[in-house]
Design brief:
It comes from Liquidambar formosana. The chain is of the alpha/beta class. Helix content is 36%, strand content 12%. Strand 42 and strand 43 form a beta hairpin.
């Protein structure tokens, strides 16, 4: 009964349940939501949801259980149902607590692992700003952070709208933490990575990347002290890597600054530093970490230096950037501060506990905190390196290179760990006393005391003598400080006569006997060794630089010394054989300047100075203190050799210089002056061959020196000759000197330097021919022509230098180009004036030589340089502008733009040189003509040979006419001899005889078409290809010079080169003459009468082409009758097949053959065949393409189709019928 009652109430919708929603009302069971009494706060939840408009009914728990038992399909409140209702529709809750209670119920059934999908869209996340936000999928919308500790304090002031309220019940907080742990929703824990990204909202944006910022806690959007404390507390708990925050200044230091986290920074922990230490560290740029804020982190030591010596040193490097700049940090510090710093960093504990490494030691050395001995200033231990004060030395000898120590402990640390050592007494005197001798000169007794100490040192330890002798502590006369071993004893008078008194001797303060004896023990020199001789040379050079009047005297003395020295060295080496020595010296010192020989005996030079110097004393006991090779190498580079200021002979090229001495590398003895005087100095004195060998004067001069000498000789001689100042003695000396030069140059043949020589002589007249220098281009060993100043022959005196001259451009004989260039030079020299008799004779010889050169080489192949020849008045001009008169009967004024060659030039010579004859001269202006291409006759002859038979000539002409779209072809055998007076050229007369003439009526050809007929096959004309025969080339069976009139132009082709080319060359040629707008046909009537121009003919010349083929000499070689008979054979062969041939043509409808006998006014027609024009089209019923297709099908097909036949009428006329 109870069950039925409940079911009845539910099914019939009786309003028996009361809800407070919407102001309170009675509703049916299907409209109601029954409360969930399993939730401990069910009654509060019913109130909250009813206020939000949800129809939760006010019923007892047993009643709900009855409905759930009997009517389970009704709406019973669950967390899932509530979440669905709230997600579907937004509800208005009464207060914040109601929403939090609702959230608590919605999360009641949440299980681990959390399925966040059911929560998306639920607007119940309580925020720190008092509002609520919606659960959403991760990445959609803003992230909401839930705090687990100090995070809430970090975020609540800056982003409360993204922070979960910390006042929610613990159960709700735990559920939200579970949701955040799943990392699927927008609810998230705060991580270090997220915190770093939130710094844009938590800190001023301009702080990003700032190394240091001024911090005003809690103002202007800056973080408070509490916030920074919370931050470091959070970092200690959750951050394993502080480096992720490197972009932001979060490290608090004194004076309200925040610094970036920088490894090995200048921030030091504040450990209660003394006032002096604190002041010093701040002055140099260090910072102190704030001690009032609790900051702890395992990685903080990477960014903040510890309060130890190594921490301070690391901070100093961080401020300076590099260890080398550390010393500059202490410019404003006080001495007391630096003393306290030294006391701190030099504590034993830092060193004994192995806290210091090499880098820290190096940094410590660079700090200026150590007290120097002399000035008591604070200095660093580097730059320069400092020393500990040695025991047992006087205080006044110490300088600032030595430091004091305050205790024995400090001294041990400096020596053991900082490696500052105490010098030995020898080191001390060498480096820090003797090098400071200038400081002690003014102190009375100091100099003698120091030298006394030095003497004692040597007595105690002889090994230090070598060290002290190389120390520059002796004051020379010129004020420089020198080593004792580099100075000489002034008590030896011979030394003062050869050495510079101010440079190589001690000053007066070092010249007392006791001092000098001490210096002698340390190496002061009393004799000349190799080094001494070098000093003598340097003395000469220095005297010269100071313009001292004794320069030459010293230089000549040194020359004597070296002469004696070389003889002594040679004798010691076993090379002192007197006879051999004398012979060698005699040979090597032959003076080519004046023909006399000089015997270079050093004893003669020695006697010059015997009264002044004791040479044996100076070089007798020679000390070889360096290798002989090194000695001579250095001696060559010092300027000490006395040299001539002016040339011994006027005209000799000379190196201009104001120097009285020069280095041996730039000097040569007088015997070689003809080889080198333009670029090297000449020795003013005599010396043995041994000395010349040692100084390198026996070596061959450089190629540049030799080439320059010859070039300068050529210029100098030309100047002397121009001014008539050439003396016989100079000529004689030059003759000998130039041969010596050439012999040296000849040694360079085959070497790499020879190319340098060729380049140097390019365009230079350098070959001496006995009376002048000439260019090798004008010189030959053999020449039929010799004429100064254009062509020369090598004199016999230079025959031994044949290889050299040939290599450098001298010819065995002149070639054609040489002759061309000579004529050009002669023309330029004459400047348009006629040749003299001698010049005319010379030119005639040159032209004969040119003609001989042309025997094997045609003119056009020989050179592109124009050949010059004298005209009738003796003026040189281009051979192309000249003609020779082979028609003396003609008037001279009939040639235009041409000149006759000089009468001394024979016609034969002119012809061999390619000069046009008067008969070959074209009488037409060049503006009316144009050159055309023409095939070489050899190639034409090959084609004719392949074709084989001239009987088909007329068939080829007929094929050509048909291809040209001609309507009629007229063939005339013209047997007449035509006049030869008015021709285009006089040499065309031989082609005025019998000829075969072809008229292509109805076909006018342009220039390109006519020219193409003279090229190699295939020939294409007007869209058709000439398929059979040789076309126009067939005419060369009977003709050498075909001529054509077509389209207003006259064409002539000369493949033999009989007419239009120079007789000596015979090159193919062709010309085109314009007949439009000219009077050529009237001027040259005889020429064009043969082309049937101006005659009453049955065709129009305007649209026709006339081809004239004069019979060749080859065709007429057996006589006129035989030649005419041969032409008749060709005609007869054509007559046999002409009518049949006509049937297969496309265009030609009539062919006629005529003969023009001598004396007749008109030709006589012998034969004519034609096709009626109405039936002519039936010859070609198909196009060419279709016709070929038809023929192929006939050959390869099996069709028996009937063939339609066409009947064409052919009209034939022969003779009188």
């Amino acid at each position: 009964m109870v069950r039925k009652l409940y079911i009845f109430i539910a099914d019939f919708g009786l309003r028996v349940l009361y809800t407070k929603a919407r102001g309170g009302q009675w509703i049916s069971t299907k409209q109601a939501i029954f409360p969930d009494f399993t939730f401990s706060k069910a009654h509060e939840l019913v109130e909250a949801l009813s206020d939000a408009g949800l129809p939760l009914v006010t019923v007892s728990k047993p009643l709900v259980q009855r409905f759930m038992e009997f009517c389970p399909s009704l709406h019973f409140l669950t967390s899932g149902l509530l979440r669905t209702l709230l997600i579907r529709r937004k509800r208005g809750f009464k207060d914040r607590n109601a929403m939090i209670l609702t959230l608590e119920y919605c999360l009641l059934d949440l299980k681990i692992p959390v399925q966040s999908d059911d929560l998306y869209g639920l607007p119940l996340i309580p925020l720190a700003n008092g509002l609520f936000t919606t659960f959403d999928k991760k990445g959609i919308g803003e992230r909401v952070y839930i705090a687990r500790g100090v995070e809430f304090g970090l975020l609540k002031d800056s982003i409360p709208h993204q922070l979960v309220d910390c006042g929610i019940p613990d159960g709700v907080h735990g559920k939200l933490c579970d949701i955040a742990q799943s990392e699927e929703s927008n609810v998230s824990f705060l991580t270090c990575e997220l915190l770093e990204k939130l710094f844009f909202k938590l800190l001023p944006a301009e702080w990003q990347h700032a190394k240091r910022v001024t911090w005003v806690p809690g103002q202007q959007g800056q973080p408070s002290l509490e916030w920074v404390t919370l931050l470091w507390s959070y970092l200690k708990s959750y951050c394993d890597d502080l480096s992720m925050f490197y972009k932001w200044p979060i490290l608090p230091v004194r004076n309200n600054y925040l610094f970036q986290l920088v490894e090995n920074s200048n921030v030091i922990q504040d450990d209660g530093w003394s006032e002096n230490m604190s002041s010093l560290l701040l002055k140099v740029g260090c910072q102190f970490l704030r001690h009032d804020l609790q900051m702890e982190h395992p990685q903080l030591k990477n960014y903040v230096q510890s309060p130890t010596a190594t921490g301070i040193l690391n901070a100093l490097v961080a401020v300076a950037g590099t260890p080398d700049k550390i010393e500059g940090l202490f410019s404003d510090t006080l001495e007391g501060e630096l003393h306290e710093l030294r006391s701190f960093v030099l504590q034993s504990k830092w060193f004994f506990e192995d806290h210091m490494d090499d880098i820290h030691i190096d940094i410590m050395k660079k700090i200026p905190m150590f007290e120097s001995c002399q000035s008591r200033k604070l200095v660093s231990l580097s730059k320069p390196i400092k020393w500990l004060k040695p025991d047992g030395v006087r205080e006044d000898l110490l300088d600032d290179n030595f430091v004091r120590t305050e205790s024995e402990r400090e001294k041990i640390i400096l020596s053991r760990y900082l490696e500052i050592r105490e010098p030995s007494r020898a080191e001390f005197y060498k480096e820090y006393v003797l090098n400071r001798m200038s400081e002690f000169l003014s102190q009375e007794g100091a100099l003698s005391a120091i030298l006394h100490d030095v003497k004692l040192l040597i007595e105690e330890d002889i090994s230090i003598k070598a060290t002290l002798s190389t120390t520059p502590f002796v004051l020379a006369t010129n004020g420089s400080w020198e080593q004792p071993s580099r100075l000489y004893d002034p008590r030896v008078p011979e030394l003062q006569k050869v050495l510079h008194r101010e440079v190589f001797f001690p000053s007066d303060k070092f010249s007392d006997s006791e001092t000098l004896e001490t210096l002698v023990s340390l190496g002061l020199r009393r004799t000349l060794g190799f080094t001494g001789l070098l000093d003598c040379a340097r003395s000469v050079s220095m005297l010269h630089d100071s313009r001292d009047s004794e320069t030459l005297s010293y230089a000549r003395k040194l020359l004597v010394f070296l002469d004696a020295l070389t003889f002594k060295l040679a004798t010691e080496e076993g090379e002192g054989n007197c006879d051999e020595l004398g012979n060698t010296m005699f040979c090597q010192n032959s003076n080519v300047a004046d023909g006399d020989t000089e015997y270079a005996d050093f004893t003669g030079n020695k006697k010059c100075y015997e009264g002044d110097l004791d040479i044996d004393l100076l070089v007798g006991n020679l000390i070889q203190d360096k290798s002989e090779e090194e000695f001579w190498s250095e001696m060559k580079a010092i300027a000490w050799c006395p040299v001539y200021a002016d040339p011994p002979l006027q005209g000799l090229p000379w190196l201009k210089s104001s120097n009285q001495v020069a280095a041996p590398i730039n000097v040569r003895p007088k015997s070689q002056m003809w080889m080198v005087s333009s670029m090297m100095h000449i020795l003013d004195g005599e010396c043995s061959v041994y000395l010349q060998c040692k100084l390198g004067w026996m070596d061959c001069p450089d190629i540049d020196v030799l080439s320059t000498q010859i070039i300068e000789l050529s210029k100098s001689y030309g100047q002397l000759k121009l001014n008539s100042l050439v003396e016989p003695v100079f000529d004689a000396a030059l003759q000998k000197g130039i041969q010596l030069l050439y012999s040296k140059l000849q040694e360079y043949i085959g070497t790499d330097d020879f190319l340098v020589l060729k380049n140097a002589f390019s365009g230079v007249s350098w070959v001496w021919i006995g009376d002048d220098f000439v260019s090798p281009s004008a010189l030959a060993f053999d020449s039929p022509v010799k004429f100064s100043p254009y062509l020369y022959v090598v004199p016999s005196e230079l025959s031994e230098f044949r290889d050299l001259l040939l290599q450098l451009g001298v010819r065995l004989s002149f070639d054609i180009l040489d002759y061309f260039h000579v004529l050009t030079r002669l023309q330029n020299d004459l400047k348009g004036f006629p040749l003299s008799t001698d010049q005319l004779s010379f030119v005639h010889c040159v032209l004969e030589a040119v003609a001989d050169c042309y025997m094997d080489k045609p003119l056009f192949e020989a050179s592109h340089t124009p050949l010059l020849m004298p005209d009738s008045s003796g003026v040189l001009m281009c051979a192309g502008d000249l003609v020779y008169n082979d028609a003396p009967w003609m008037e001279n004024n009939t040639i235009v733009g041409k000149h006759f060659v000089h009468p001394s030039i024979s016609n034969d010579l002119a012809n061999r040189l390619g000069v046009q004859s008067l008969r070959c001269l074209s009488l037409v202006d060049e503006e009316m003509t144009k050159d055309l291409p023409c095939m070489d006759y050899a190639r034409i002859n090959e084609l004719l040979a392949l074709y084989g038979n001239n009987d088909f000539l007329l068939f080829d002409l007929l094929e050509l006419a048909d291809c040209c779209k001609a309507k009629k072809l007229h063939l005339i055998f013209d047997k007449r001899e035509h006049p030869r007076q008015s021709l285009l050229q006089h040499n065309l007369g031989e082609f005025q005889g019998p000829a075969l003439v072809a008229i292509l009526e109805g076909a006018s050809l342009n220039r390109e078409e006519v020219s193409s007929l003279q090229l190699l096959p295939p020939w294409r004309l007007r869209g058709d290809t000439l398929n059979y025969g040789l076309g126009l080339l067939s005419c060369y069976f009977i003709c050498d010079l075909p001529s054509i009139v077509s389209g207003g132009y006259f064409y002539m082709f000369d493949p033999h080169g009989l007419v239009f080319s120079v007789p000596s060359s015979r090159v193919p040629a062709a010309k085109m003459f314009s007949l439009m707008g000219t009077n050529l046909t009237e001027r040259f009537h005889d020429q064009f009468h043969t082309m049937l121009i101006g005659q009453n003919m049955p065709w129009s010349l305007a649209d026709s082409t006339v081809i004239r083929m004069p019979l060749s000499s080859e065709c007429m070689k057996d006589g006129l009758e035989i030649g005419l008979k041969r032409i008749k054979q060709i005609f007869d062969r054509f007559l046999e097949h002409s009518s049949r041939t006509l049937l297969f043509l496309k265009s030609v409808v009539q062919v006629s053959l005529s003969t023009w006998e001598e004396g007749n006014l008109l030709p006589c027609q012998d034969y004519s065949v034609c096709i009626d024009s109405s039936s002519a089209i039936m010859r070609n019923p198909f196009s060419e393409k279709k016709w070929r297709k038809f023929q192929i099908s006939r050959l390869f097909g099996s069709s028996n189709a009937a063939v339609k036949l066409q009947v064409i009428d052919v009209n034939l006329y022969q003779g009188g019928s």
